[in-house]
Design brief:
heterodimer, A: about 325 residues, Rossmann fold, 7 strands, B: about 325 residues, alpha/beta, 2 domains, seven-stranded mixed beta sheet
Chain lengths: ~325, ~325
């Protein structure tokens, strides 16, 4: 950071470095999660967020711990970006007692209430009501927190979205619908499942809508900051369509996928539009960090992840008497 | 003691809880100025305003979803689902979202919401506005299910439901909204999981829910004239279920009929009868009998609809046979 002479970036240097760090943490988390699956150490399946890091980080860096998010089956990125720790996350992925949900939720249900993450959701579009309800609560109680509802392009086919957008627009709720358009609805191209324009659907309810390059963390962050500030003042709701790409298949077991998308297409996104590579080059070019500093940061994150994985592998499973615990709250 | 209608009792419970706790609000179709089609909520919007008595579009999954999210983040919504039949529309929000949040999060998240809706046939409303679907939700771990049988229960159970930290579904019998019962002026709550012995008897136990409590009580009066003393028990909540009171009664009487207005197959009656068989089999002098609604969609024609629900006469006939030791081949 010694070379951070550029006037424009100087004051933002810490923010930028944190955004880079968070993106690398997500990618590293996912690489480790994938290895746990491939080595048969993880029960069940998981859905990789790799490739979409700029979306979660750009958005969550514009939020405070009081702001809420709802997440999806592809939710590790949102969870990390909203402030979660590796150790509790890996413990949850392995079904261990020290996981965020004491091993009861797993990859598709991680919730981290202390940072405002109301949880991943394994029903596609299933959390759209929850996010909008959180925003309704904020409005009724006169609180200025904002809720961001993450979902994919596939979820735009769910009727629930249109019901809750209607109410959010009628009542001017502080909710931001963030559609991560990664081009695929599970194993099907989005163009095969979505008629017309996705943005136009939100606009039909009078909701101000924006499309943004989801591989550009600064563009995502800048737009989100503006929308969050306005939502806090009662100018919501808003809709963002974030154009992005998922590097892996629908889930970790979706290996042979050439029947629905080509290896050339995947290679093009990875080589030419990777959000981490792009931002790293920007940081170096702007003199915010040197290559050496970045390598050191990457190495530190890899060590953190390896330690968390090792910890989680050794951590105990929940005791049998927890199986019928937490069905009902006291 | 003063007598008020079931509708007034629900209204009072909501008003009292909304005065006590400002995080309580009502959400649903035509709940504000209209006060619902049954006029149960009349007057509430005048006292609490449209911020706390919120009219929604006709979007059941949407507004139930909003209630789940509001409940998860610190409010206590009471959702009004205009007809119990609409539960099918909200199954994902209720059963996948509300019911499971606490468990899936390892106890971190809570969903303190009430879904109040109704049940009951013979209102000539045909197959999509007459169902009694309590068994569907009672099947789902994480939901509590209350079935008030009079104005007294309707008020006390509603107040308990609002203070409960779990999603609670309350089924009111839509034909009982104008039925009056003694309800104290002073505040009271009815704890969940405590059955009410409505009438004591030594020969047979009639376990009945909601609207069927009246049916069982009428049957008990008729049976008494024949020298058969029936005990009538209202579980009041089917989740949690006060098994102990039911078991103790059947140990004493050695015979039981379970009556509920949901479809008989795979229903509430089957669950309770099965528990009795498992736990007090050696005390029984006759098979435990189920009496539910016929396994047909509710027909419109009065001539047909009245045939589908249990009646006092039907209960008397079955009780008589059980007490006489006659074999009964249940539907």
């Amino acid at each position: 950071m010694a070379k951070a002479a550029t006037k424009k970036t100087k004051s933002n240097a810490d923010d930028y470095l944190r955004m880079y760090r968070q993106m690398v943490r997500i990618r590293t988390f996912e690489d480790n999660a994938n290895q746990l699956y491939l080595s048969a150490k993880m029960p069940g399946l998981t859905h990789m967020y790799s490739g979409e890091e700029a979306v979660a980080v750009g958005i969550c860096e514009a939020l405070t711990d009081d702001d809420r998010i709802t997440s999806t089956h592809r939710g590790h990125g949102h969870c990390v970006a909203k402030g979660a720790e590796f150790k509790e996350m890996f413990c949850e992925l392995l079904g261990k007692a020290e996981g965020y949900c004491r091993g009861k939720g797993g990859s598709m249900h991680i919730a981290d209430q202390s940072h405002g993450n109301l949880g991943a959701n394994a029903i596609v579009g299933g959390s759209m009501g929850i996010a909008t309800g959180s925003a309704l609560r904020a409005k009724l109680q006169g609180s200025d927190d904002v809720t961001v509802c993450f979902f994919g392009d596939g979820a735009t086919a769910q009727g629930l979205w249109y019901e809750v957008m209607n109410m959010a627009a009628l009542w001017k709720l502080p909710v931001i619908y963030a559609c991560e358009n990664n081009g695929y609805s599970e194993y099907t191209k989005t163009e095969e499942i979505a008629a017309g324009s996705i943005m136009a659907r939100a606009e039909a309810f009078g909701i101000e809508s924006h499309q943004v390059d989801g591989q550009d963390v600064l563009a995502v962050n800048e737009l989100t900051q503006k929308l969050v500030a306005r939502a806090r003042k009662g100018e919501g709701p808003f809709f963002m369509e974030l154009m992005t790409y998922r590097y892996h298949g629908h889930h970790v077991g979706d290996i042979n996928r050439e029947y629905y998308r080509s290896k050339d297409e995947e290679k093009d996104w990875k080589d030419n539009r990777d959000p981490i590579i792009r931002f790293r080059a920007y940081l170096v070019e702007q003199g915010i960090a040197t290559e050496e500093e970045i390598e050191a940061m990457n190495a530190e994150i890899e060590t953190d992840a390896a330690e968390a994985v090792a910890y989680a592998e050794k951590a105990p499973y929940p005791p049998a008497n927890e199986v019928d615990m937490h069905v009902y709250a006291d | 003691m003063r007598e008020i209608t079931l509708s007034q009792a629900v209204n009072e419970a909501l008003a009292e809880e909304m005065r006590r706790d400002e995080t309580v609000f009502i959400l649903g179709e035509d709940v504000a100025e209209a006060g619902t089609p049954f006029k149960v909520l009349s007057g509430l919007v005048e006292e609490f305003g449209t911020d706390r008595v919120i009219d929604t579009p006709i979007s059941e999954p949407g507004f139930v979803g909003l209630a789940v999210g509001a409940a998860m983040t610190g409010a206590r919504p009471v959702v009004d689902l205009m007809f119990g039949d609409f539960i099918y529309l909200v199954m994902d929000q209720l059963c996948n979202q509300a019911a499971k949040q606490h468990y899936m999060s390892g106890g971190k998240l809570q969903v303190p919401m009430v879904l109040r809706t109704n049940m009951g046939a013979t209102r000539r409303s045909a197959a999509q506005h007459s169902q009694s679907l309590q068994a569907l939700v009672a099947h789902i771990p994480g939901l509590k299910v209350a079935m008030p049988s009079s104005a007294y229960e309707a008020k006390g159970l509603m107040k308990t439901a609002i203070r409960d930290n779990n999603p609670v579904v309350i089924f009111e019998d839509k034909l009982m909204y104008q039925d009056k019962a003694p309800v104290p002026e002073e505040e009271y709550l009815i704890p969940f999981g405590e059955a009410n012995v409505k009438r004591e008897g030594r020969d047979i136990t009639l376990i009945a829910t909601s609207s069927m409590v009246q049916v069982a009580e009428k049957a008990a009066v008729m049976l008494a004239k024949e020298g058969i003393e029936a005990e009538v028990i209202d579980p009041r909540t089917i989740v949690p279920l006060d098994e102990e009171t039911l078991l103790e009664s059947v140990k004493k009487t050695s015979r039981a009929i379970v009556i509920d207005e949901g479809h008989q197959s795979y229903g509430v009656t089957a669950e309770i009868a099965s528990r009795l068989n498992e736990k007090v089999f050696y005390h029984l002098d006759a098979p435990v009998l189920r009496m539910g609604a016929m396994d047909v969609p509710v027909p419109f024609s009065p001539a047909l609809e009245d045939l589908t629900v249990p009646t006092p006469e039907g209960v008397v006939e079955n009780a008589r046979k059980l007490c006489a030791g006659e074999m009964i081949h249940a539907a």
